[in-house]
Amino acid sequence: MNHRQKPEWDEVPPIVKNDMFMGKAAIDDLVAFELACKREVSDALKHTDDEALEVLRPVLPSEKLFRENLWAPFQHSARGARISKPRHIFFLLAESHGQAPFDAPYEYLNLMAASRRYRSQAHTLAMDNFLPAGMISQPSLVSLLAGIYDADMELNENTMFWHGNIPISLPLQLKRLGYRAEFWYGGGLNWGSLEHFVPAIGFDAWHGGPDFCPQGSPKTWLGVYDHIFLEQAARLIKQDDDEQPVFHFLYTTSNHGPYNMPYKEYGFAAEKVMPDAPKTLLKNHKMMKQMAGIWYADQALIQFVEDMQTVYPDSLFVVTGDHTTGLIPFQCGVVDRTEPNLREQVLTSFSMSHPELTADMLSGNTIGGHMNIMPTLIELIAPAGFDYYSIAEPLTEPVDHVVTPYCWMTEDWIGDYRDGLSQQLAVSEELLPFERGKERFRDERDAWCELTGWLVRHPELLDDAGREKSIGRL
After folding, report:
1. Calpha distance 343→426 (Å, rounded)
2. To the nearest 5 percent, what fractions of the chain are helix, strand and coil?
């Protein structure tokens, strides 16, 4: 199995079983112990402070400043609002919503037909080269919310992060701009200990699909079907709306194996959705279920966006995926190759809209990543002089490279730290050459991981006194 892909549910060994009380995988004790022994501990957690400061040096303008105030090196001052402050911000994080189906060679499959409709709106901006903060769901979600890379340290499962805030977090910084912050998830909030982590990270309210959707709502092993989850979230959002600005973060679940939903009941018909698909694909029952699942999830996602645009036309929307997965059925003859290019293996999707948003506001950028989203939101709506924290530049300023714990990207190249491979960043029907020895930005990558490790090793910065020290006068 490709090391970048999550296993299908039916590939999980029989020692793993679904536990209705834990809401997550429960593994026999001896097997769990064996897995724990095999798991590598991040180097960032083994370092002394002096060793860590050496690793952090590439991202620190001043070691003295960092020691006095952990967040000071990452402080920015907003240049002034580009758009009218929206009363509603909707951030939609879609399970496995990747870039590849948008690329020209696969457009004819119409998997992202709804998103293409959304992207065709006059004030929707999209970026085709966008790196996720994690290669699987949990680190992407946590990084987006926390404002620092999770870097596979599972901050959400660390009890120290259940009792203190991180000043750089997305909801906390939007709350400083006057927003109430609400978190909506299609699954149960016991997944990933979200019921503990989400309030600690700064949300005012949090909602799990099984708790607010009608009793008996159909669901996958991850959560309530997307269209039901989003319809019910929309109903409650309208019902509880008041004059206070609100930031809604919504995370879906349905685009995930084993793809056993009744897609035909929800509008999928292969002859209408993908009339030009190769026969090899159309005859592959298992793969067609996945194609239907990808199409369905995108339809549900954009139906929510269009509904909210009608009710709240001044809203700011962000639509992105948590990561990507094997969305393109290369083995079924969709193009004349059977292997994906690197961009097709790692890039997620990104688009955003607001009635006053124009292309020049994103400074002509062609690349970006999850960590660029938060500062972009703030630079679009915050008054001049508003101080905020971010480890990444906003997309309102030129971005010449993106670095995550897993990958790096420039306007011309993309690389993967995990296997040392790099490749030209280009859409191509052909398999582009992979190269070794062209790795870039390793020092910066290690520094971002070290920053997370520093916070894990210094949980005192998360208590009340530590928080006051870490945020200074902000």
Report:
1. 8
2. 40, 15, 45
